[in-house]
Amino acid sequence: MAGDNMLEIGPGLGALTLPLLQKLDKLTAIEIDIDLQKYLEQLPIARSKLNLISADALTIDFSQFGPHLRVIGNLPYNISTPLLIHLLKFASFIDDMHFMLQKEVVERMVAVHGIKAYGRLSVILQYYCEVEYLFDVPPEAFEPRPKVNSAIVRLTPYRVSPFDSVNMMQLESIVAKSFSMRRKTLTNNLKGVISLSQLNDLGIDGSKRPEQISVAEYVQLAKFISN
């Protein structure tokens, strides 16, 4: 929709930016590279419609862009995880997020408990958002061809969460401890944090490995420990 409150992270040479500018009344874009900023600023269509911000997206307070924000971007592998976690702090301002990422990262984002790809990123993202694997983007779609496959993912922050409310830092802490040694059991990894009898009282099987514990169970653990 032309009036959407759209923000692009890392527009680069404008592969997404240009078609977005043709459809939108206005687009905000965050770019850290000064040379790329200069390139984008000289595009004729950008002069009246592009609000270009020179900054590191990891330092941005996304609440400044107002409600109903829609975020889009082709995220580099090295900052994708910290940037996704940073964006979650502003989930109440965001309607949805669409990103192209390395396929392996998207598989981790959407993974459910019980499979190998499930981990810290899966739990944290799925606590805040509905995460959907949309489609693959093959290497031949790019020039030059990358050595990795890419995929598109959509994250839609919950307006009514299916989970109990819990402190984000507490959830991140318990998930990090649980996955610190993936081959160990939950009881082993959480030694000194919660006892086997307490896990049993919560109905959580301490003999399971961290990838076998559901998002709801991690929320339950974080809530118990914070009380």
UniProtKB/TrEMBL annotation:
InterPro entries: KsgA/Erm, rRNA_Ade_diMease-like_C, rRNA_Ade_Mease_Trfase_CS, rRNA_Ade_methylase_Trfase_N, rRNA_adenine_dimethylase, SAM-dependent_MTases_sf. Keywords: Cytoplasm, Methyltransferase, RNA-binding, rRNA processing, S-adenosyl-L-methionine, Transferase. It is an enzyme of class 2 (transferase). Its EC number is 2.1.1.182. Its main location: cytoplasm. S-adenosyl-L-methionine binds at M1, G10, E31, D56, N74. It holds the Pfam family RrnaAD. PROSITE patterns: RRNA_A_DIMETH, SAM_RNA_A_N6_MT. It comes from the Bacteria. It catalyses: adenosine(1518)/adenosine(1519) in 16S rRNA + 4 S-adenosyl-L-methionine = N(6)-dimethyladenosine(1518)/N(6)-dimethyladenosine(1519) in 16S rRNA + 4 S-adenosyl-L-homocysteine + 4 H(+). One of its GO terms (molecular function) is RNA binding. Residues 1-159 form the Ribosomal RNA adenine methylase transferase N-terminal domain. GO terms for cellular component: cytosol. It is found in: Cytoplasm. Belongs to the class I-like SAM-binding methyltransferase superfamily. rRNA adenine N(6)-methyltransferase family. RsmA subfamily. Specifically dimethylates two adjacent adenosines (A1518 and A1519) in the loop of a conserved hairpin near the 3'-end of 16S rRNA in the 30S particle. May play a critical role in biogenesis of 30S subunits. This is Ribosomal RNA small subunit methyltransferase A. The lineage of its organism: Bacteria, Pseudomonadati, Pseudomonadota, Gammaproteobacteria, Legionellales.
